[in-house]
């Protein structure tokens, strides 16, 4: 498996996440190095084949599957300042994806080590020929990287391929409105002709990109609608997670049900703040429509 050329000095190494390789002033910058025992060797080999060497690492966000190989590549890693402590602390990572320390083997991907962040950046900063673009909602500081010359955006987990959404039911997000706003932003970029590269899923452009983004947005809106329907009866977060997974025909496993409780809590916050639902105690903390 080799790299795919995306533009002038711009390549993609496949994986889940896939890794973007940007050659800047002759040296390589890697975005989302990913995970896996031999991945660092594969990446270093591909960079050597391009006649270059790695000078810096960037990450779209601090989820374990995006950064765990960084610890094996002796190169400074740069993160958005909202993601810095998520990368640095394995406990913060579990906190973000589970809500507290997680039972072993319970998260989709666990990486129990620290990743030392070299420096933090802001959205709109220029980093090694790439522009940091605000695409948060999936995580607090989720960042896309734009190569304006090649009209490519590496979009991280700000949107997902159809297959992943079908499998989990609800796209993973921690803030519904921010996630939606990022999808709209990506939609504008798609109309401007940008090639969109998700971390997990296939590269899309033009009409195909617009359709996939609409599918992501629709799924968020359907989830909101289904939650309101389900909450005609008082229900706990955990019950909602089960019924929503069933309604979307998603995989019903302990891991999926636990993970989906995070976006569901974000939906609950949104609906509660809009005055559409209330909290009731019925042998548990439950929520119901007003
Ligand atoms: Zn993620």
Automatic annotation (TrEMBL):
Keywords, alphabetical: Coiled coil, Hydrolase
SUPFAM superfamilies: Metallo-hydrolase/oxidoreductase (SSF56281)
InterPro entries reported in the protein's UniProt record: Metallo-B-lactamas, NDM-1-like, RibonucZ/Hydroxyglut_hydro
Domain of life (superkingdom): Archaea
Metallo-beta-lactamase domain sequence ranges: 15-200
Record has Coiled coil as a keyword: yes
Pfam families found in the cross-reference section: Lactamase_B
Residues forming coiled coils: 206-233
GO molecular function: hydrolase activity
Name of the featured protein: Zinc-dependent hydrolase, glyoxylase II family
């Amino acid at each position: 498996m080799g790299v795919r050329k995306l533009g002038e000095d711009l390549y993609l190494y496949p994986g889940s996440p896939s890794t973007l390789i940007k050659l800047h002033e002759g040296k390589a910058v890697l975005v989302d190095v990913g995970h896996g025992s031999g991945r660092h060797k594969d990446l270093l080999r591909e960079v050597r084949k391009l006649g270059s060497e790695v000078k810096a690492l960037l990450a779209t966000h601090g989820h374990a599957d995006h950064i765990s190989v960084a610890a094996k590549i002796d190169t400074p890693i740069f993160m958005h300042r909202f993601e810095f402590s998520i990368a640095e602390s394995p406990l913060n990572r579990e906190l973000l994806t589970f809500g507290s320390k997680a039972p072993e083997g319970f998260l989709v991907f666990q990486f129990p080590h620290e990743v030392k962040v070299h420096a933090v950046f802001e959205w709109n900063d220029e980093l090694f020929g790439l522009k940091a673009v605000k695409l948060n909602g999936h995580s607090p500081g989720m960042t896309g990287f734009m190569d304006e010359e090649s009209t490519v955006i590496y979009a991280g987990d700000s949107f997902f391929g159809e297959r992943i959404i079908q499998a989990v039911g609800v796209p993973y997000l921690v803030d519904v409105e921010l996630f939606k706003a990022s999808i709209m932003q990506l939609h504008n970029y798609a109309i401007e002709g940008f090639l969109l590269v998700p971390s997990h899923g296939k590269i899309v452009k033009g009409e195909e990109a617009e359709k996939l983004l609409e599918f992501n947005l629709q799924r968020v809106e359907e989830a909101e609608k289904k939650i309101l329907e389900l909450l005609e009866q008082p229900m706990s977060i955990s019950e909602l997670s089960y019924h929503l997974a069933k309604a979307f025909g998603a995989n019903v496993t302990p891991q999926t049900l636990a993970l989906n409780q995070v976006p569901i809590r974000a939906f609950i916050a949104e609906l509660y703040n809009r005055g559409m639902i209330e909290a009731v105690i019925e042998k548990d903390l439950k929520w119901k429509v007003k």
